[in-house]
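Data availability (excerpt). The following record was deposited with the supplementary files.
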Amino acid sequence: MSEAENKVLVRRWFEEAWNKGRAEAIDEMCAPNAVVHDLGGQDTSGLDALKAFHSKFHDAFSNHRVRLDEIVAEHDFVAVRWTRTATHSGRGLGFPATNKTVTFGGMLFLRVENGKLKESWNCYDRAGLLQQLGRANTADW
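Predicted structure:
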């Protein structure tokens, strides 16, 4: 795929999987043996593990909106800087919902292989997210 096509895939990923909450997007856009580094504080491998994280995140948060602030592609890599706003309305983080709306940012570096998301590296403001939720202990999630 071209760099432009890779960017389209990544934009579609954020829109379908995260903004719309479509778990089916994982099967559609990810390689079966996809690896995600530092997702919820750990590495995740395979579609089932990615779907479990997706479910946990959507159980914790509603009213998702991810805005792509920057997106750059070179060869089979795409780099994204994003900002997410969501409401903590469920127990998916392992503690009761606060019903607080949070805004936090992050960066993602993805590798595309054969038109599918194959590997990604995540970095996001986990401490800032938990602080907004009144959780001083970043080991909570």
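Summary of structural features: The longest strand covers residues 61-74.
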